[in-house]
Amino acid sequence: MKQLSKFPNEELLNAQGPFVTIYQKVEMNPPNTESVQLKFKNHVKNAKEQVKHECTGPMCENLIAQLDSVPNDKGFWTVSRGSVAFFFTPQETYYYRVNTNLNDGISFGDKPNVLPLIEEFQYIENYYLLCLNNHEFSLYRGILDRIEPVELPEDAPNTIEKALGEELVGNQELNSGGGGGSSVHGTQEKSLEWEKDQENYFRIIDKYVFENYSRKEGLPLVVFALTENQAAFRALSKNNFLRDNRIEASPAQLNEQEIQKEVEKLISRVLRERHSEIINRYEEVTPQYKLGDQYQDLAMASLEGRIESLFIEKNAEIKGSIDDTGQMKQGGDDNFLNQLALNVLATKGKVYVLDRAQMPGLKDVAAILRY
Predict the structure, then answer these.
(1) Cβ distance 135 to 146 under 8 Å?
(2) How many angstroms separate the Cα of 71 from the Cα of each of 40, 45, 92, 110, 344?
(3) For 127-277, which CATH class?
(4) What tens digit of pLDDT does each residue of 1-16 get?
(5) Which CATH architecture has domain 285-371?
């Protein structure tokens, strides 16, 4: 079973079906993992019954085996909020832990049901938050506006003393007893030495975070630091996952709850800005590069890779599917909008799931076409 953190995920989108998709909301107030486990056990039981009645072909038994092997222990469900999205295939099981409260649901079909998941990732990916000052750093993992601390190993260079050791110029000066010269000249030298220490330390942090976290998962890096430390760190960083979004303040004296509040402010602002940008983009595009609820045109455009951005009303459902020639076939159990979204994601387009009041033209579905 594989936990995924990025969406869209190539491995999931390219996986061979059939698929069982299970969404489960986690609400433990007061904490009660046994009730969560029981609910999930019932979801799996109902999913297996659905597979037995609807699945045909050689992969059905393998799919049931995946459902039987999924863990359902207390440790897995020890979270206080959010949801878990499961995607079962005959070969593998994938899951996401998300911050959004998604409605419980079970579906079976040739494609994964990704529409409920999109809202979590449409404006911002999961990310790492680097809290940085002159002498130490800490790292958090972010899911939307919620963070959790990353437990660093013992050998992590999380303080300047651990990182530089004997190379710490300030320590060398203390160990040698200082040394004469005028007070002005000595102060200037000391300042330059500490600047060198800081630069060396920031280089070590940058390399450590990139090699051990950013590069491994491909997640963006957001920095929480004073303006001058932001500038110094960014000037030397070689981490191509470092983002412009930032929190310009000192995290040094803040506890986790106070850091959390600063993150909430940043993410709220980012979400508003990115939503406004994409809606303004739709309004500015000329009519020949827009589509509304013209389902057949949307189906063909999605298969041909001509959709740049797709907007779908939250909870909307249109029964139908898209065949290999780009024709929409109405009816059946499939949600046409889910397959439309999968086609757009497969051709590197963007998909947004919005409340009715936020939808361009107040339609069920709309699209911006590529030029």
Answers:
(1) no
(2) 10, 14, 13, 24, 32
(3) alpha beta
(4) 999 989 999 999 999 9
(5) 2-Layer Sandwich (3.30)
